[in-house]
């Protein structure tokens, strides 16, 4: 819904001052996104993928070329820009998607479980890039994760979602104090209970397994 | 415009890069041309139908276009499965532009494929009668390509897995090809087959190509153009509508 792909049945959303249901294009320009599943074209090169994005978002050619080089250098893919994406590893694809999502200078950056299925080295590296980009660009990072320690370490504000509803929010410390637990993992369990959730898999990716939303504020 | 262009370019790049797809999609038409063309040639002549290769080649060109464009249209299922569709759908561009860009891309590829089959058919004995009408045949090829890419897009917009693709091939593409007059003349057919072939849009494409390439016509070029144009318009409108409703 935040990304204009689904229509809300009730309530109101404002993103960067725009209503996604009314000002669709302004909203879309305001955010960058990395989906849970890869959304790159495997048959194109890294450069073509990111350039394609720039054209769709109407970034003027001169700025686009400069920015592509800048972003691909940060995520250490500039040397590999002419390779087909299908030859990339999972971590490389993620890095490319992150740099792509930032190309059009978004104000908000959505990351849907950006580190899912990656090894610890790659996970760490990805968070370093995100932090670095966050500091350089001064944008709000909005991410979801199942890894409590990631949320504890990175997010400034955290919201815990269970069965599709936000059941608690605050800083990691606030959540831990409130539930009188030592780790965020325990706080999470205290809030949501120990019963394993058996959600029915819906056809819509957005809804899939999304139980926690972590909010990171402007740094 | 830039959106349409960049999506068109993407389809082309994908096509030109997958050599196996180009060769694979040419294999079947060549087999049909050679096996059926030479196989049925003598009997066709005996029955007073004239040169079968002349008759068959436009039908096989139409087949190549049909298969390639339906495949391009249904590529949406792939893009959906592998997530690329989402990237275009959250971009600040209209769905109509996305649909137009994709369809033009698919149609360009299919026309190109049709031209290749035409050139190949020259090597197995096909001789177009008039060089100028070959140019008109290109227009028909492009119109057909648009029509079937649009049809593929429309159908693929309502499907969400690969299984549906096989269903389209077996229950739509194959019957359309076999009942279009691509392989046999439409004269003196049983009533049912005659009605079905008249309802089949490919029939008019085949007839248009045969008229322009060999001079043999069943409906006349005017009817062919009118029917093709009208159906293309309807299918593209339907496709745009269905595509605009996709939720990913």
Automatic annotation (TrEMBL), chain B:
Give start and end of each ABC transmembrane type-2 domain. 20-246
The Gene Ontology CC terms held by the record are: ATP-binding cassette (ABC) transporter complex
Q: Does the keyword DNA-binding apply?
A: no
Keywords assigned: Cell membrane, Membrane, Transmembrane, Transmembrane helix, Transport
The way this protein sits in the membrane is described as:
Multi-pass membrane protein
Transmembrane intervals:
21-43, 55-78, 99-125, 131-155, 167-186, 219-243
Q: Which InterPro entries match?
A: ABC2_TM, ABC2_TM_bact-type, ABC_2_transport, Daunbcin-R_ABC-transpt, Nod_factor_ABC_transporter
Similarity comment text for this entry:
Belongs to the ABC-2 integral membrane protein family.
UniProt protein name: Transport permease protein
